[in-house]
Amino acid sequence: MENLHDKRKIYEKSQLIESEIKENPIEQFRDWFLDASSNPTVSEANAMAISTVEDDGCPRTRMVLLKEYTYEGFIFYTNYDSRKGKSIEKTHKACLHFFWPCLERQIIIKADLEKIAENLSDGYFHSRPKGSQLGAAVSPQSEVIPNREFLEIKLNELEAKFQNSEVPRPENWGGYIAKPYEIEFWQGRPNRLHDRIIYSLKDLDWEISRLAP
To answer: For a disulfide at 25, which of 97, 101, 161, 183, Cβ 3.0-4.6 Å?
Structure first.
């Protein structure tokens, strides 16, 4: 066994104080996201963890890519019949998490989820590389399959079928928009006295509070 007690670092790159933050959390997210996107040590600034609660009451977390954000919410795409899709359809809630270690920052977002309009899912689907379109059509996401060859055979069949034509978007594949009602911004600070600023939606206004680290 390895003792990890002494594996720690000092957080001292930035601060998060009330006099410098935006009144709207989406604008604060935008500022931090742009910082992450422009940092050469961040490979995928839009990579985020999504946690949903399954039937046994246990959360399940996986990484996906954020594809768009607006004042209304955060948009990502998936198979609606996947484990995450089934959980979302039951609870209509999820927690999104961004972590950028080199900036010593993380963002935690609690949100209500709903499917986006079909034409928007169509537009994004057909903007993807054809290989990605075929992959989405081939994979029965989260279902048990016999082996990898099962997928490769189906992929070869669809490649031949749609060699000279457009791949239709599967009906069970599309986008969700996560509409936030709570967003926490975490900035690492020395001595573990980290900055935690939380925005909570009250009616139509955002209430800003500081949490103890």
So the answer is: 183
CA dihedral over 113, 117, 121, 124, signed as positive or negative: negative
> Which two tokens mark 89?
């359809």
- pLDDT at res. 5: 84
Contacts of 110 (CB under 8 A, 6+ apart): 93, 95, 180, 181, 182, 183
Task: Report the greatest alpha carbon distance in the chain.
Answer: 61
210 is in an annotated binding site: no
Q: Does the pLDDT at position 111 exceed 90?
A: yes
Contacts of 82 (CB under 8 A, 6+ apart): 141, 142
**62 annotated to bind ligand:** yes
Element containing residue 199 per DSSP (H, E): strand 195-202
Segment 89-102 shows an average pLDDT of 98
Q: H helices within the chain, ranges in order?
A: 25-38, 83-91, 118-125, 130-138, 148-161
**Residue 77 annotated as binding site:** yes
Candidates 8, 60, 192, 210; catalytic one: 192
The whole-chain average pLDDT of the chain stands at: 96
Burial class of 111 by CB neighbour count within 10 A (0 to 12, 13 to 18, 19+): buried
Q: Residue 30 catalytic?
A: no
